[in-house]
Amino acid sequence: MPFAIRMHRTGGPDVMCWEELEVAEPAPGEARVRHQAVGLNYIDIYHRSGLYPLQLPNGLGLEAAGVVEAVGAGVSELRPGDRVAYAGGPVGAYSQVRCLPADRLLKLPDAIDFRTAAAMMLQGLTSAYLLRRTYRVQAGDSVLIHAAAGGVGLIACQWAKALGATVIGTVSTAAKAALAAAHGCDHVIDYTREDFARRVREITVGEGVAVVYDGVGKDTFAGSLDSLRTCGMLVSFGNASGPVPPFDPLLLSQKGSLFLTRPTLMHYTAKREDLLALGAQLFDVVGSGQVKIEVHQTYPLAEVAQAHRDLEARKHSGSTILLP
């Protein structure tokens, strides 16, 4: 029987167990997929720790790429042998084989291999909805992207640059600054050495940016608001440093009639047609070479606990994959 990572309680990396798991035939509307590569994302840590509660026991992981082995009744878009990838759930991607709803799967173009797909689906679809739906970046916009050397950051910076934006990114080390600069950032700010909000004002000659994409959360929230132009938008899409504490919405008017949104990929891809549209945009920018996907870390799936420790310690840059 195939193996999978299972979690029976929330907590640290050690709560993840490598267990043998029977996989049934796909039910109506499902497909059984044998994974070739699995993506690692910070939301996996939120699920493991209990910040985002799951019904237990359960699996982990929201993103993978592989080959369809079988399809259930009523599935017409897929057939055995198709190369597919997915992101966004249901959880359980940390596995060798699994069944999941067929309408969550996207067929992979021939030019995109399994490892690239597993490294880009969640982060790439996130970048797609952030840049093309939540705030539609236009040529001439100035944008601020936190964690610019992270998985989402490297994709979003390249994509925003391709759209004609002036891209400002924040990082925590000189090595990450060099990485961000090589992937679309016009200006890179080391937030450990500089006040990033003040520096953003200098770069934009006092105006501020049209949008801030903030996946860091608590540590950057106040500075992100201070980086925005009048009527700018803060897109808070993650909590890498912890949840944003409660605040008075009056603050948004005091700082320039600002907009604040807390989006999720799940809502932006709930409809099949929206998932297909975002997937097509992602495959297009990757296939055209405008966005390059680089796998910087690889771990055996059975050793995912160490991958989680390294991710929480901010040792990672770019994308990480797990090999079943």
From TrEMBL:
It comes from the Bacteria. SUPFAM superfamilies: GroES-like, NAD(P)-binding Rossmann-fold domains. PANTHER family: QUINONE OXIDOREDUCTASE PIG3-RELATED, QUINONE OXIDOREDUCTASE-RELATED. Signal peptide: none annotated. CDD domains: QOR2. Pfam families: ADH_N (PF08240), ADH_zinc_N (PF00107). This is Quinone oxidoreductase. InterPro entries: ADH-like_C (IPR013149), ADH-like_N (IPR013154), ER (IPR020843), GroES-like_sf (IPR011032), NAD(P)-bd_dom_sf (IPR036291), QOR-like (IPR047618), Quin_OxRdtase/zeta-crystal_CS (IPR002364). Residues 11-322 form the Enoyl reductase (ER) domain. It comes from Candidatus Accumulibacter contiguus. Keywords: NADP, Oxidoreductase.
